[in-house]
Specification:
This protein is 15% helix and 42% strand. With 146 residues, the protein is an alpha+beta fold. It is globular and about 40 Å long.
Length: 146
């Protein structure tokens, strides 16, 4: 009886560890990402890549923008593009950009394929002309079902 319990616990432990080891090489799975970026003039910057599991919409909330001259910068425009990549990191698709100012939240789902499970990252860039660096904060909801 004791042997049976030990074997059962070992088998259960193996079942729990096996899926973790399979996913260990994949991108981190996230439903919500809070982040910031230092945008140099109008140069584009990429976020980290994350995996989403479910069929759901993706949203970006532009929380704040700050420049050396304007703190806060309510009129600083942020252009965001959603990029989908394969498991090996190779390019798959880029979706139409959205443009936001601080305080706005917009859907990144242009077309139905944005809602599919997969690996995604963002390309962030100032949309309006500037020679100043801009510090932005944002919230990216990868799995959102309103």
């Amino acid at each position: 009886m004791k042997k049976k319990k030990i074997l059962s616990l070992v088998a259960l432990g193996a079942l729990l560890i096996l899926p973790l080891s399979v996913n260990a090489a994949a991108y981190p799975i996230r439903t919500l990402v809070y982040s910031s970026a230092e945008l140099v003039r109008r140069d584009a910057q990429s976020s980290s890549t994350y995996s989403k599991e479910g069929w759901s919409s993706q949203y970006l909330q532009h929380n704040s923008s700050i420049t050396p001259k304007t703190n806060p910068c309510p009129k600083c425009e942020l252009m965001t593009k959603l990029v989908q990549v394969e498991d090996d990191g190779s390019y798959r698709n880029t979706f139409a950009p959205i443009i936001t100012v601080a305080g706005e939240e917009k859907a990144l789902n242009v077309g139905s394929s944005v809602s599919e499970p997969g690996n995604y990252y963002l390309i962030l860039q100032r949309n309006d002309f500037t020679l100043l660096n801009t510090h932005i904060t944002y919230r990216w909801r990868l799995n959102y079902n309103p």
